[in-house]
Amino acid sequence: xxxxxxxxxxxxxxxxxxxxxxxxxxxxxxxxxxxxxxxxxxxxxxxxxxxxxxxxxxxxxxxxxxxxxxxxxxxxxxxxxxxxxxxxxxxxxxxxxxxxxxxxxxxxxxxxxxxxxxxxxxxxxxxxxxxxxxxxxxxxxxxxxxxxxxxxxxxxxxxxxxxxxxxxxxxxxxxxxxxxxxxxxxxxxxxxxxxxxxxxxxxxxxxxxxxxxxxxxxxxxxxxxxxxxxxxxxxxxxxxxxxxxxxxxxxxxxx
Length: 255
Description:
Mean pLDDT: 86
Strand order of the largest sheet: 5-4-1-6-7
Strand content: 5-15%
Shape: elongated
Oligomer: single chain
Helix content: 40-55%
Order of helices and strands: HHHHEEEHEHEHEHEHH
């Protein structure tokens, strides 16, 4: 498991489109053959144009992502499992810094207040593999308690480092507490395919609740086709990481 974890983190760098663009650009500058240099530089520029095009990305993401969930789509009184990867804690100030994926948390709290769920299992371990820092689930629970949420509403699973472990360690908590495994699973749209199957592999009956989609359904603008969008490079890296993750999890029989 430890080797799988480290190699998966290393591989994330290699499947980043920005890494490819920089690699071929540098290769084009170094090469001495003028004709080959020209074609490699053109290829590098082409990658930049393709992977910064918002319209192209949006079409692919719409096809891949599970549709955005509505609050009314959930049965009442479910236990929700909320997957981490949405916040980090500043080492010096202990202040929580939220990422784009924190929509997972905010949507979960809305479900809790609306009575759609009655408990949240926050599943997320430490940011670093050496377990030096507090787990994400733990500092998020502390944050919610300070906001006035009840202790009984928040359950912590603070050991998991990846989606497989989210499901595996959550199962242990559900078994220990004799909780119903008919759950609402809350995670990002691009991640739901793999996450749902991991939890089903561990015996959960999953109702997906999708948050923070990468794709958008707003009307198309000319700038989406013509103007490069730097953030799209990052969005592509998330999709590639997810696709590779699906393949790796299938090979390891995690899903």
